[in-house]
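Dear colleagues,

As part of the handover before I leave the project, I'm documenting each prediction I ran so the next person doesn't have to rerun anything. This entry is a single chain, and its sequence is reproduced below.
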Amino acid sequence: MSADHLFVDSNVLVYAHDRNAGEKHAMAKGRLEQLWEQPLAPSLSVQVLQEFFVNLVRKKVEPGLAREVVENYLAWQVIDNDRALFLQGFEEQERWQLSFWDALILAAARRSGARILWSEDFSTGQEYGGILVVNPLLG
């Protein structure tokens, strides 16, 4: 993967598809549109897609439409949840003192070869052993 390969967390996807999110919607939508134009697709994980789907439905998107939207992101590099990732999540949690769910995101980002993690949930500017967190929703 290139030095700027990135992994996208579910919160960025949710804002991009939540028209009620104001400025965050506009910012996230614009950022994701740029990613669709890149020659190297970004990465995300099955966990990210699961969280994205659940949040769309929670925001009253009809489940069939939510499924279609989520399936579009299968064109990106999707990191599967498996035993090795599960165990890596424990290691990331212990090393960085993260919640287990955030540790799984970090483990998936690491597996993807990403050097940048787009997320609003992690501390922007924080570096986790070669993965830099960037909040793409900041101006």
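The chain has one domain: 6-134. The helical segments are 10-17, 23-36, 46-58, 63-72, 83-96, 100-112.

All the best with the project,
I.
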